[in-house]
Amino acid sequence: MFTHDTFTNARIRSTTALGTALGRALKRAAVVLAAVLALGATQPAGAQSRLKDIVDVEGVRDNVLVGYGLVVGLNGTGDTINNAPFTQQSLYGMLERLGVNIRGTTLTTKNVAAVMVTATLPPFAAQGTRIDVQVGTLGDAKSLQGGILVGTPLLAPDGDVYAVAQGPVAISGFTAQGAAASVTRGVPTAGRIAAGALVERTVDFRMSDMQALHLALHNPDFTTAKRIADAINAAIGMGTAMAMDPSNVTVNVPAGRKADLVGFMRDIEQLKVAPDNPATVVIDEASGVIVMGENVRINTVAIAQGNLTIKITETPQVSQPGPLSGGTTTTVPRTNIQVDDGQGKKLAILPSGVSLQDLVQSLNALGVSPRDMISILQSIKAAGALQAELKVM
Fold first, then answer.
1. For the segment 201-224, what is each residue's pLDDT rounded down to a tens digit?
2. 33 — phi, psi (to 5°)?
3. Which of 19, 92, 115, 179 has the smallest set of CB atoms within 10 Å of its CB?
């Protein structure tokens, strides 16, 4: 038979077990929280990017290809043969290779155009794969609409043929004309052939032979290079990576990962690093575009902006004489002159170390337009108060 003491002892044991379990859970949560805080403290502030988005691997690169060919099948919009001797000679050579001899014959066709063909051979492109090509005229052809590119070998800078291009040319523009007017939309003398080239030769490059990987930064920076090396060492092991200079980071492939270099690169390129960018102000005077980085700072400076504007308006009036007065009708000039000396503009003081947001707000408070802001930024830089690199495009 259960007594009151039995239930009391059971309740005490249950409460003790619950307290012990809760204490363990709180300790585990505290450990996880401490680990998270420690990890956050080691990560630099700012937006983080994957390594694959901010670096290139040395040797893994595109290769440019170029070729010279003929586009046929044009509807009278091709080269004028008399004005484009290279088109005539190319046409002679192509027909002779096909067994047709027309040397000494006067050609008047306007259905052929000489073109330059360009393409980009991606890294590790296998033989038999297809790549896109771009086509542009060399002579006085009016349009490539409806044209077909005849087989054209594409060469690399080493002189070897790596692909052969052929196919119908697609253009994004057109030309229409009549007896007294014409209209042109886009660029009808340049086009594109999607998957128009067949790769005939591959670039001799094997990653499996590499003992070390060399990462090239898109935007060279000492801090970013060091952060990349630290991130790789933390993920793979100390001594794996070393920042050689602001542009290059060397990664030594561990002995156990050389058999799976692709998997090793997958692990590295997914690491995230916060790139550090210098303080820069970019100005495009042609379009009035201003781009400022978050690290832009200025010293204490006073700014006043105002323009002297003089507006002159001529409003001539006609003076009509009264009836039977014998007078003549004359034009009397009336001139209205308005002067705006910018009295509404005030002098604004920007304290030392203001941020980008404070700078923009202060300039907006003065009613400064983007065009005037360009002059103000250049003046602040000339005064030595703008602590940033000023790039004018």
1. 988 877 777 888 999 999 999 999
2. -65, -40
3. 179
Report which residue type is found at 378: Q
- Three-class SS of the chain: CCCHHHHHHHHHHHHHHHHHHHHHHHHHHHHHHHHHHHHHHHCCCCCCEEHHHHEEECCCCCEEEEEEEEEECCCCCCCCCCCCHHHHHHHHHHHHHCCCCCCCCCCCCCCCEEEEEEEEECCCCCCCCEEEEEEEECCCCCCCCCCEEEEEEEECCCCCEEEEEEEECEECCEEEECCCCEEEECCCCEEEEEEEEEECCCCCCCHHHCCEEEEEECCCCHHHHHHHHHHHHHHHCCCCEEEEECCEEEEECCHHHHHHHHHHHHHHHCCEECCCCCCEEEEECCCCEEEECCCCEECCEEEECCCCEEEEEECCEEECCCCCCCCCCEEECCEEEEEECCCCCCEEEECCCECHHHHHHHHHHCCCCHHHHHHHHHHHHHCCCEECEEEEC
Nearest CA among 209, 309, 307, 222 for reference residue 259: 209
The tokens of 313 are what?
A: 């308006």
The closest of 213, 250, 246 to 229, measured between CA atoms, is 250
Cα separation of 158 and 152, whole Å? 17
The reported pLDDT for the residue numbered 150 is 95
**pTM given for the model:** 0.64
Answer whether 118's CB lies under 8 Å from 153's CB: no
Instruction: Decide if 367 contacts 307 (C-beta within 8 A).
Output: no
Beta strand pairing call for 113-121 and 182-185: unpaired
146: left (phi over 0), alpha (psi -120 to 50) or beta: left
| Separation between Cα atoms, residue 377 and residue 147, nearest integer Å | 51
Q: What angle do CA 206, 211, 214 make, to 5 degrees?
A: 85
